[in-house]
Amino acid sequence: MYSRFRMLLWAVILLAACTSEQSDPAAVLNRYLSATYRQDLQTAYKYLSSQDRAFRNFETFAHHLSMEDIMSDGPFMKKTTFFIETLQIDGDRGRAIVQVHQPDVDRMTEDLLLVALSSAGSGMNPSEFNALLTKQYRDRPVPMITIRKGVGLVREAGGWRISAGWPQEAQVGQLLLQAARFEELGALKEAQAKYEEALILNPNLIALRDKIDSLAFGIKPSMEEQRDFQKFVNKVLEKQQQRIR
User: Regarding the domain delimited by 23-164, which CATH topology (the fold level of the hierarchy) does it fall under?
Assistant: First the structure.
């Protein structure tokens, strides 16, 4: 009897600890991001919402994450730091903006381009390229860049989880294509409406907010801003195509 009571007591204590761990959305967000940038993907995956985990199993999650520029840089990824800029809670939903200080992949690629193309460099596999990166930056600082990214949260089963918005990817991709076509035709109000629909489906896409504001005020973005936004759109569409394949 005493043994059964002790086991029940431990079960209650463990359940309370798990519930407490997920009751603070800021703590959940910190743990998720820390695990991600430490490459502890098993832990990171556990913090995702049930919808996201049902949509994408762990193997697919790990594969897609490895396709991200920063995630493909192996040991350099661990130099990444982050800071939660804002965290807004509205009922069972939350939205955060996070500043991420990470290796500047574009700059590093440019620095290594000539080296990679010399001799047999153009035929390097990923492990060989990572080894070259490590050698290149062994005795000099790694170029860094600070970006802002949106992260959604959802409260379910009494605790907070990360809402990645994966089930909405296909719809968001179609809306972005439609918005781009409207922009090309000069139908800015219609383009703005499509971007707003996409942002409602996935509030994590904070790059859309700046785009919507520029369309609303008739501000023409700079060439650099247009290039950066096009890269963002291409990544969203690329992820959608990878899922289809």
Answer: Nuclear Transport Factor 2; Chain: A, (3.10.450)
